[in-house]
Amino acid sequence: MMKISILAAAAALMAGACSAQAANIEFWYGNTGVVEKAIQDQCSAFNAAQSEHHVTCVGQGSYEVSMQKAIAAFRANKHPVLIQFFDAGTLDLMLSDAVVPVQDVLPDVRWDNYIAGARAYYETSGGKLFAQPYNSSTLLFYTNKTELEKAGITKTPATWEEIIEAARKLKASGHACPFTTDGDTWRVLEQFSARHGLPVASKHNGYDGLGAEYVFNTTFAAKHLQNLIDWRKEGLVKLNADTKAGNFTAAFNTGECAMMENSSGSYSASAKAFEGKYELSVGMAPMYEGYERHNTFVGGASIYIMKGRDKAEVEGAKAFLDFLRRPEQQMFLTAATGYVPVTNDVMDAIAKSGEANSPKYATAAVGIESMNQPRTPDTRGIRLGFYVQFRQVFMEETQKAFAGEETMQAALDNAKKRGDELLRRFEQTYKGVKMQ
């Protein structure tokens, strides 16, 4: 009898311990459309898979809005336990004192299982992971093989020189839009510089300290941006406003444009639009001849654990992060969106699934291959303050050059000057704060 009582008491204590750990947690994210649906599906799957914790996933409409709201909520002590932030906000978050490094909260996770390209962007200079990579993208090269073959192009271009040769053939055959891009900072500066092994700023893009200065106006990236202007004048390249669709992705997806540089995260929309009409190809972003290929940066976003939540909420957050890290969950996100898996074991899981050649996993191998190319101290990532604002500055200035209001070199020099002012302001804001 006493034995039964002891067992009953022990069971009651265990039950009490379990219930004490149960938590309702919030996860804020910034995506819409196909990606938002996939995130909500994962949240529902987590809630259905166990009963100990419940996650409520709250969309904020965009990465920028999510970031602003989270910081404001943190100051008011009304913040969520988990927040998704995009790549450009990394340093701001690291120095905000609003988040705790994920590696400190989950020390037993094999963080080295993350592909180097996804991990490096969110690590401290000393190699500690601050956030768990989540919806990770990188830059890829898309072609409408059907339209290329109509113009007599049977080999998919791999270099910029080959792209322009193909673009001239397409134009000669009557194609109105051979290649399209939107000139976005992430595509034409960050990803271009990374894979060509070029710095965006000194001090290894800020990893070595807050005293960095922008240098992109003096690198080969400046020549590439001038080339885009020249190719646009020649009718080989179109920007958003030049297309009938008014948007470069839509212009490619409708068949208006034959080639495009875009995020791996846009693959599913292109594949769906092409179904039954065109053949789609996707490969690594093009290089200029004579340059050794290096890794592309991880794009998309990662998940941070915010400070100031109780132990039960942190346990719930850990459980949700563990769930999202599972290979089957990463495979689901890749299949649903085109975002790239972030741990090395996922490619094995895809191979064992019997669907390795399925179009739904088309971005997985090429995205991982692109991010796992040889790296240099200048291709770890971007660790620069007020970088969200800098991206806007870069777009404002380069759009003036595309509009013919100033030369591209003048635009880049202006962007460098304005960018350096942001860096100095950030440096003053965090004066005396130790870099992570």
Which key terms come to mind for this protein?
436 residues; D-Maltodextrin-Binding Protein, domain 2; 5-stranded mixed beta sheet; 47% helix; alpha/beta; 11 strands; disordered N terminus; 6-stranded mixed beta sheet; globular
In CATH terms, what is the architecture of the largest domain? 3-Layer(aba) Sandwich
From the spread of the alpha carbons, the general shape counts as: globular
Helical region count? 19
Secondary-structure-derived class: alpha/beta
Report the β-strand fraction as a percent range.
5-15%
Count the beta strands.
11
Q: In the residues, how many domains can be counted?
A: 2
> What Rg do the Cα atoms give?
23 Å
Give the biggest sheet.
6 strands, mixed
Topology, element by element:
Elements: H1 2-21, E1 23-29, H2 33-49, E2 53-59, H3 63-75, E3 82-86, H4 90-94, E4 99-100, H5 102-105, H6 116-119, E5 132-137, E6 139-144, H7 145-150, H8 160-172, E7 177-180, H9 185-195, H10 202-205, H11 220-233, E8 237-238, H12 248-253, E9 257-263, H13 267-274, E10 280-284, E11 299-306, H14 311-325, H15 327-337, H16 345-352, H17 362-371, H18 387-402, H19 408-429
Helix pairs in contact: 2-15, 9-11, 15-16, 18-19
Keywords: Periplasm, Signal, Transport
Protein name: sn-glycerol-3-phosphate-binding periplasmic protein UgpB
Subunit structure: The complex is composed of two ATP-binding proteins (UgpC), two transmembrane proteins (UgpA and UgpE) and a solute-binding protein (UgpB).
